[in-house]
TrEMBL record:
The keyword Ribosomal protein does not apply. Its cofactor is Fe(2+). Belongs to the KAE1 / TsaD family. It comes from Streptomyces globosus. This is tRNA N6-adenosine threonylcarbamoyltransferase. The keyword Secreted does not apply. One of its GO terms (biological process) is tRNA threonylcarbamoyladenosine modification. It comes from the Bacteria. GO terms for molecular function: iron ion binding; tRNA N(6)-L-threonylcarbamoyladenine synthase activity. InterPro entries: ATPase_NBD (IPR043129), Gcp-like_dom (IPR000905), KAE1/TsaD (IPR017861), TsaD (IPR022450). It is found in: Cytoplasm. Fe cation binds at H109, H113, D304.
Length: 348
């Protein structure tokens, strides 16, 4: 039974996983406290983690009907993320591991996003192409064994992440924070063909797996400006639908190109943007016509949570990985090479 702790950004999450099965998970978010600043304020996030930590862990244990003494290991996000936020989660996790006398595992946040999918759909087929699309990352990965082998990066974003693009364009359109869900909602009443937003890095000769989203933000800003200059009302729903279409188109096109090039039959889409309805729908359609199996975790496991960290911890325990020493520290900018951010597990 592994207790997983997540605190890299604005969600405090605790989840409990046993042999690949999710027993319970609880998430508290400080999102509302950041809304009026238009983005996560690190100091506020860290303080919110401090307040939420004990209640969230307690509730996860209660829901699973467990006492701390019944936990076999604690897994915690040690990076990447906001330093202060990560520190709170790690300090809490160390305390719990020490109190319970169980091993501690340091987990890479993005490996957690990948593992989230296993909780509903079972072990990852090997190899799988994984598209991680979140507030801070947009990466195409080739994953063989998540905890035993290094993760191969096929491509990343050269500038903004897809979620960041949603958040920034939402602000430009006057939609509330966080922008991703707001754009998704607004787009329901819009026409995706109303605006011809660019499809960055999709021309022949472009890096097939690299992404760029900052140009979309600029295009959206210019489109809004054009309306304002003419004294015309901005058709927000159309803008949202067209933006969402452009992002979903580029993401799914490149992900399927990666599957084809590597002969991979499974595409896994994870991270907060995997909650986007158009990304899901287009991925489904394109995977179906390419004969590729699509796996997307349920919405609640797409955004940051503790269950996904527990899922990695559970895999690490079962693979016999070496736990982290109790003086392990955070790594706010950890590159995604290995799922476990512990020195010995790296060589396992
Ligand atoms: P990272 O995981 O890269 O460190 P993060 O923790 O901020 O970043 P997540 O919590 O995984 O990222 O996802 C949050 C992002 O997902 C935000 O940018 C948010 O706007 C976006 N998002 C959430 N729901 C949707 C949706 N329905 N459509 C589009 N984007 C969405
Ligand atoms: Mg978040
Ligand atoms: Fe995340």
């Amino acid at each position: 039974m592994v207790l997983g702790i997540e605190s890299s950004c604005d969600e405090t999450g605790a989840g409990i996983v046993q042999d690949g099965r999710l027993l319970a998970h609880v998430v508290a978010s400080s999102m509302d406290e950041h809304a009026r600043f238009g983005g996560v304020v690190p100091e506020i996030a860290a303080r919110a983690h401090l307040q939420a930590f004990n209640p969230v862990v307690r509730e996860a244990l209660d829901r699973a009907g467990l006492r701390l003494g019944q936990i076999d290991a604690v897994a915690v996000t040690t990076g990447p993320g906001l330093s202060g936020a990560l520190q709170v989660g790690l300090a809490g996790a160390k305390t719990l591991a020490y109190a319970a006398g169980v091993p501690l595992y340091g987990v890479h946040h993005l490996a957690g996003h990948v593992a989230a999918d296993t909780l509903d759909h079972g072990p990852l087929p090997r190899p799988s192409v994984v598209l991680i699309v979140s507030g801070g990352h947009t990466s195409l990965l080739l994953v063989r064994d998540l905890v035993r082998e290094p993760i191969l990066h096929l491509g990343d974003t050269l500038d903004d992440a897809a979620g960041e693009c949603f958040d920034k364009v939402a602000r430009i359109l006057g939609l509330p924070y966080p922008g991703g869900p707001a754009i998704d909602r607004a787009a329901r009443d819009g026409d995706p063909r109303a605006v011809a937003f660019p499809r960055p890095l999709t021309r022949p000769g472009d890096d097939p797996y690299a992404f760029s989203f900052s140009g979309l933000k600029t295009a959206a800003a210019r489109w809004v400006e054009d309306h304002r200059a003419r004294g015309a009302q901005v058709p927000v729903a159309d803008g949202a639908a067209a933006l969402q279409e452009a992002v979903a188109d580029v993401l799914t096109r490149k992900a399927l190109a990666a599957c084809a090039a590597h002969g991979v039959r499974t595409l896994i889409v994870v991270g907060g943007v995997a909650a986007n309805s158009r990304v899901r729908a287009l991925a489904e359609r394109r995977c179906a016509s390419a004969g590729v199996e699509l796996r997307v975790p349920p919405m609640t496991l797409c955004t940051d949570n503790g269950a996904m960290i527990a899922a990695v911890g559970d895999l690490l325990v079962r693979s016999g990985a070496e736990p982290a020493p109790l003086d392990v520290s955070i790594d706010p900018s950890a590159p995604l090479e290995y799922a476990a951010l512990t020195p010995l597990a790296r060589t396992a």
